[in-house]
Amino acid sequence: MASAKQDFERFVAWLHQHDEIAPPDVRRLANLALANFDALAATSRHRSQRSIYLEGLLRPALAHTSDAPPAAPAAAADGAWPWKRLRHLTLGPFRGFRTPEPFDLQKRIVLFYGPNGSGKTSFCEGLEYGLLGAVEEAENKRIDAKTYLKNLHAGQFSAPVLKATDHQNREVDVVSNPDTFRFCFIEKNRIDSFSRIAARPAGQRTELIATLFGMEQFNEFVSHFNESIDSQLVLEAKNETVLTERRRALANDQATVEAVAQSLADLATEEMELGHRYFTETSYVELKRLIGSEEAPGRLHELNNILNSIPPAVIGLTSAGLLTAFEEAHRWHEQAEKISGVLEERSAQVSFKDLYTSVIALQETEGDHCPACDTPLEGPSHVVTNPYEKSRAGLEKLKDLGELQESLKSTKANMAVASRALRQQLADMGKFIASQLEMDTPLGRYLSGLEIEPSGSWWMSLYPIQAEGHPEGSGLTDLLSLAVRIEKQDATSRLALQDRQMRIEERDRLIELQLLVHTQDQKRQQSLGNVAEAKARIAAFDEANAQLIDDAEKEGQDIARDQPIKVAYDLFLRKLREYREQLPGTLIAGLNESAMNLYNEFNRNDHDVDKLEQLHLPVTGDGKIEITFRGNPGGRVDALHVLSEGHVRCLGLAILLAKAKSIESPLVVFDDAINAIDHDHRGGIREAIFENDNFSDMQLIVTCHSNEFIKDIQQHLPQKQRGDCVVYLLRHHTGDYRPRVRNNVPTKNYIVKAREAKDNLENREALASARQALEMLSEKAWRWLGSYDLGLISLLLPGVGAEPSLRNLCEALARKLKDATTFNHESKAPLLAAYDTILGIPSNNLVWTYLNKGTHEEADRDDFDAEVIETVVQILETLDAINLRPKK
Length: 888
Prior knowledge:
The protein has about 900 residues and is of the alpha/beta class. Among the domains are: about 5-70 and about 225-230 and about 555-580, no CATH class; about 320-475, no CATH class; about 750-880. About 55% of the residues lie in helices and about 5% in strands. It has 33 helices and 13 strands. It has a six-stranded mixed sheet with strand order 6-10-11-3-12-13, with helices on both faces. Strands 2-1-4-5 form a four-stranded antiparallel sheet, with helices on one face. The chain is elongated, with a radius of gyration of 62 Å. The protein starts with a helix and ends in a 7-residue tail after the last helix. Mean pLDDT is about 80; it is low at about 75-80 and about 470-475.
């Protein structure tokens, strides 16, 4: 039920208790945050809303805020509660109550039931306001408290008036204190949220314990602090850095001005060295004149003009080479003619050679007979001479003829090569003639008329003897004269090319120096410009940077102001998160055993192996709830992995009750909490809370819309506690918007109702309640025997499909008690005596007729025996007084 502000107040108090880890600025920041909590909580980390708000809050106020602890209400110490039981509550106008409504709360057990919307939640919120000073639901919904708490129809709100009984039995006012009473409330919503978070993946369960104890608002509040406030503060001397850089540049300017003479001297030396790179005695001025310009061309321009004229290419043809080419072609021609003549003379042998070769080729297919006459090679009738052997012998004799044929092929190939070489030289001469524009001369026409690939001995017209009738000027003599001209031109071209290369090298050197001269001139120009600019900047520095100087000074003051804020915020946030992380462990410290025992009592019907052997609650916000089962005491597992949702809800309720018990709270308010538990576990919870001694020294206030659960509480309350219980019934209004409150609700306890009916001489009603009471007590006795492994009994049935009568059940239980000779317990003898007494009433007695089947309207029935009915009621009261709690 705690709000984020209340939890933050506890953090601030914790921070002030640890002065050694919280410097004064951190405590001041915490005090400011607490004083402005509502506005701070309205911000979030989105777009740095919270850090922006804090920056506006801390800058003007941090240094002037006190670092002393803020005033806070004192919490109860070591169980010294200011009162022992609530006494009275007056509620209204408040939420659903339009007019003041009194509630007498002096009983130890106060039960409220009624339909939804009848005022139960408004009643609990009245208690919450009276004990804690606020209602959490209003804060959750971001609604102003007075708007949320006022009655809609009355249009106003009055603070509840809550009274209590102190330790001297005096009536005192209850003073709200969230620290003292925060664990007095157990809500359905808390248990529901706990079970929902338990169903999430392990990485999303960090708020598990916080949710159970109502601290999710605090978790959310802490999570909205930005990781850093730096972006809202002035922490870097940006202007001072710029100013320093500019002053450094100013120092560079001063050094530039002071070094101008040396700089110019260095430039002059570099320029002199540059001139000497062209020629030893060349000055820089002369070098620039050689390079020239558009207005005054120099040597470089002259070289470019010279080199633009390209000399003729070297053809590489000589008269001697030409003559040699003619001779080579003619020599191979003559040798071919000679070989051809020899082969002509031996033409007959050539025919035989071809014949022999063909015969040998036929041997593979005609090898066993003659290929000409088809006569077998062997046998009675065979050829005289083997044609294949004769062919091989003939070829051997004609071997030199083959060599002559191969020699002729080789000679013709060489002649073709020599012919192409000669034709290439004549082609080169043709190009020369064309370049000299002499294509119309007889020699030009001859050369242009030659085929590209002439065949045969085409040169014979020129060499060795010029044929008659050949055009004048096309003879060998003219060709040799042309070759001499070409030879002379080649010599001239070679000399020109050598001279051209020297000029190219000179030009390239001047171009390279031209680039260096250009760079050097720019360097001198830049140096002189830098000096001029440096002098101008030095003269104008203070005036040009006046604003920056002022900004840097103000910036230094801002940093001196904001740096402590950054340090304080960083440490504050770290301590806040540290507090949040350790808070769950603080809340549940020492609860392991008591929570486990309560959990096992809630789950009384589970097998013993499925009950808990150990419970380990987490010590940090992201820790696990771990358990071991009695059936496997060595296997420690994550409880939320293995427990069902119903068991998880029981665990949450057990933890909350264990916390209330550990602080010795005088009060526990169950705000519809029982409805968060499934029906299978309600019996165990009812027994653990209302029937056992776990909470016998606490006042218990229960609201519930299930009248059956309220009835069960009344039925099973120990006899001595029934007088300390009151039941309220809340019902909807009848049109006046005032809930109908009834505080004199008759008890639903069967035994009490049986006694009241008997005392009023209403025997039939007495027997009706007696039958219900005997059923309830017999079931209780049966469960008690079962807790000692004696629950197996035999029952007689009157027929197929019939149920055992109540008397049969009582007889079976009595028989089980008598047969269990080794079972000794202080409750055994009185229980058996009570059953013997009631079973002593004859089974055909009218009383047993009605105990077995119930009482109904019947005509002509006999009157009831009042003394027997008194006996039955007394026996039931005796049974009710026996301690039949399982394992007790």
